[in-house]
């Protein structure tokens, strides 16, 4: 029925602003773990439209999961969709995966911090990582679940224990911070936000989110330092802005699905052998005291091919970095201790 999926298709596709040829297409299997949720469903919808995805496995514990898969399978795009419900079907979902994207877990309600999600989400990510270690040890894992700063160390420790850890293959998804920074700068500068290039470094919560506004291209049209600081705060608190606006109905889902699909697409373009594929991600790092840190990385056939660092920071950004490090160290330790207790 979906035989097109297995043949190389010569065409040019555009997704999330990235143009790429699908000639010499490899068949990539992508898994979404947490696929029935607020992020999972629109993320799956976007991935179903990506010509690099030929198999899309949707995993969740929610009863609706097989139905979400059937629904998406009626789209006339090549990816074959399968639904997998409950822990006993997780192994089949991840088997032969190239990329496992994980938005499984609970989101924030107003008044909560991302760290408040740790107790619930830590075991969810640990168990999914454990199943990936056993059934798809070569897969790349892209972790959306919060708190990202601690979830990436959890997955990494699980893979280490299983003897299959490759730091190039575990990424914390911080793409939404970059997307937001570009959206806000586009608005300020009166330009198309997709033309804005802005690194956001550090981690993915409050003070650990460091938009490097001094490196924005085009330059941010704000001369006043007070306004730069206000924009920095807005980017750091943008997740909370959404949580408050949804008033108990969850956190960012649609913008996160967009950002997650962009990161997934970049990972697949790297796996396919495309050169100069660069995105920010939270990865194993020796650039600072923090053993995991987000900044631009080059993606390739093995995942993270090269850590591109974060270049020159101005005096204000150096202060932001100083404030971020203790928080990152604490978050990383919490994650590592959870697995090694
Ligand atoms: N990295 C980032 O930038 C962002 C991260 N997030 C995080 O993403 C996570 C998901 O958010 P939403 O999709 O809005 O939540 P949601 O509650 O709408 O969906 C979560 C899904 O995970 C599933 N789930 C729960 N336990 C599971 C398990 N053991 N195995 C598989 N699936 C399981 C649920 O059944 C549900 O379908 C939250 O932790 C949230 O904080 C949200 C926005 C941005
Ligand atoms: O704020 C939250 O809880 C969800 C999230 O990580 C974001 O929107 O950046």
TrEMBL record:
GO terms for molecular function: L-malate dehydrogenase (NAD+) activity. Residues 174-339 form the Lactate/malate dehydrogenase C-terminal domain. The keyword 4Fe-4S does not apply. NAD(+) binds at residues 34-40, 60, 121, 144-146, 256. Substrate binds at residues 108, 114, 146, 180. It holds the Pfam family Ldh_1_C. One of its GO terms (biological process) is tricarboxylic acid cycle. It is an enzyme of class 1 (oxidoreductase). The keyword Oxidoreductase applies. The active site is at 204 (proton acceptor). Its EC number is 1.1.1.37. It catalyses: (S)-malate + NAD(+) = oxaloacetate + NADH + H(+). Residues 29-172 form the Lactate/malate dehydrogenase N-terminal domain. GO terms for cellular component: mitochondrion. Keywords: NAD, Oxidoreductase, Tricarboxylic acid cycle. NCBIfam families: MDH_euk_gproteo (TIGR01772). Belongs to the LDH/MDH superfamily. MDH type 1 family. Homodimer. This is Malate dehydrogenase. It comes from Papilio machaon (Old World swallowtail butterfly).
